[in-house]
Amino acid sequence: MAMSVFNGARFLDAAIASVRRQTFADFEFLILDDGSTDGSVDIVRHHAAQDPRIRLIARENRGLIASLNELLGHARAPLFARMDADDVCRQDRLARQVAFLDAHPDHGVVGTWTEDIDEYDRPFRTSAPEHPVTCDEVLAVIEQRSPLSHPTVMARRDILRAVGGYHVAYRHCEDYDLWLRLASVTKLANIPERLLSYRHYANQISNRHAFAQQYGAAIAQLAYRERQLGRSDPTETLDRLPAVETLDSVFGTPGLSRQVRDKVARGALYSRDAMRGDGFALLIDHVRDGGNGRELWRTVVRLALFGVPGRAMRLAFALLFKV
């Protein structure tokens, strides 16, 4: 089991305790404290003093992708399970996943369904579809959305290492890029049981970086299609994703820049952070290229409600005059 922690003290004790209670007891629990300043490392040390299966790695902050790759490098067990510092495992999670991989040697990765909870452990309602179960179902949706919930995943360690682990360029969507690369070399599936409680709350990373996730996912899908066609992935060695205006030249395909810009811009319409941040510039370029419609006019109102009336006026002007 591998967990990266950065200022996760609020929920960390419950997360660690849920792993320690697993019915499958033969595991190592690697916890990397990524430079926390909120007492997270003291919580880990408290548990480690009681449970020799816990190995703490404490260092300065380097970010999630560096932490995940470091954990993968330290892993001694042949199976590598993920866990976030704000979620809670059901007691039989590891047992169910180990049994699945033992029974399916052709599968390299297995996730699970989740129970959605809020910051007070109450049920949290979401409209997200269930994750696909079989490998065929995974492949049917993988070019449209992530087929696995990252903190539920258990994978064969050597397969993760063979594909290069997590790629640094795909910050905030490193898991989706990894599933797309793994889909070319192994089978992926989900156990249709809610073996992890996935926590939703206002300040979690996925809420703060929705636009970066959408843009990264669009690039990951382009890279996946390149690999499917037998061509090299031009993002494989990059430290950061290419800017949208360079995509035609990076991938050698005319029209990709506009295609990605329009797709991501429309996906960002409902995100407060995206419309108050980098997503707005993409939206304006989308309008200049001819984008219009009722939903874009509704976004003018949303921008005012988001507290950026100047951007609301800018979008209305662009819709009227295409400038």
Automatic annotation (TrEMBL):
Residues covered by the Glycosyltransferase 2-like domain: 3-133
Record-stated family: Belongs to the glycosyltransferase 2 family.
Name of the protein in question: Glycosyltransferase 2-like domain-containing protein
Single GO MF descriptor: glycosyltransferase activity
Keywords: Glycosyltransferase, Transferase
Domain of life: Bacteria
